[in-house]
Write a structure and sequence with these properties.
This protein has 2 helices and 16 strands. By secondary structure, it is mostly beta strands. The chain has 2 domains: 92 residues, Double Stranded RNA Binding Domain (2-Layer Sandwich), CATH 3.30.160; 168 residues, Porin. An 8-stranded antiparallel barrel has the order 6-7-8-10-11-12-13-16. Helix 1 crosses helix 2. The protein is rod-shaped and about 135 Å long. The termini are far apart.
């Protein structure tokens, strides 16, 4: 004849206690003691506990809901009350360890890039342009962007110049005039000794070349596109967010159009292909 063992299942503090012992302490006693020491007495079931008597000791085994063993231990003794209390403390400690070691899914967002990590500068300056023997005044507005305290920045500038005369032929009254206005872009390398800023820059410039004539029997106007390559240097000194500066740069123009005047006093002259720019201005930024 086979003996049939009935197991009593008790739920307490998130544990399903499978009472398989045939004598004391019972699963109900362990559950009652566990309610007194567990912080989450009403938690949903997450683990199972098996109680068994083996070799005069109470054997406890903690399992997950899939049946895998998480922890086990044998408690010697015959005092049912003491065994129930010891079992409750042990189970509460096991559940704390299991909860601490369980993987947790957390959603995080990358920290936004702080605006102060970006270096910016806006500069306005007066220009003096020397091209051949002629001089013209003008102005430029430029901006530079890059990593804060970085060595290399990107520079973009817009400039314009006044008209300047260009002698053509032998006519004492008539002459041609020309000017350029354009957009320049390129890298800027910055050095920061103390309160000083020293910049070296190179750029490619796309410009509109304007030509006209005055003092002739027939005066005409013309527009053309010009492309230039150049570079220069600039020195500035910090005064908080303001930096006054002086600079010099050189540009070489890839096209050198000719201006022709017909008639007995006419002639031909080339628009200068090299220019030297002198600048003085003030910059605002956070570098």
């Amino acid at each position: 004849m086979h003996a049939l063992t009935l197991a009593l299942v008790v739920v307490a503090a998130g544990l399903e206690i499978d009472d398989g012992v045939s004598d004391r302490p019972s699963g109900a006693a362990v559950a009652e003691a566990l309610r007194g020491v567990a912080a989450d007495a009403d938690a949903a079931v997450r683990e199972r506990v098996e109680l068994r008597r083996q070799d005069g000791a109470l054997h406890l085994r903690l399992l997950d809901l899939a049946g895998a063993t998480l922890a086990e231990r044998s408690l010697p003794g015959n005092d049912c009350g003491e065994l129930a209390r010891t079992s409750a403390v042990l189970l509460a400690a096991w559940r704390t360890e299991v909860a601490a070691s369980a993987p947790k899914l957390e959603l995080t967002r990358p920290a936004p890039r702080r605006a102060r990590d970006l270096s910016y500068e806006v500069a306005a300056s007066f220009l003096g342009s020397l091209a051949g023997s002629s001089f013209a005044a003008g102005a430029e507005v430029a901006t530079a962007l890059g990593r804060r305290c970085g060595r290399v920045l990107a520079r973009l500038g817009v400039f314009g110049l006044d008209l300047r005369p260009l002698s053509v032929g032998t006519n004492k009254i008539g002459h041609a005039r020309f000017t350029r206005a354009g957009l320049s872009a390129g890298p800027l390398v910055r050095f920061r000794p103390g309160r000083w800023l020293f910049d070296l820059h190179a750029e490619t410039t796309a410009a509109i070349l304007y030509l006209d004539a005055v003092g002739f029997a027939t005066n005409q106007r013309s527009l053309d596109f010009d492309l230039g390559l150049g570079g220069g240097a600039r020195a500035a000194i910090h005064a908080r967010a303001v930096a006054p500066f002086l600079g010099v740069s050189v540009a070489g123009w890839l096209t050198g159009p000719l201006v022709r005047v017909s008639g007995p006093t006419g002639g031909t002259a080339a628009v200068p292909r090299f220019e030297v720019f002198l600048e003085a201005g003030i910059a605002f930024g956070n570098d």
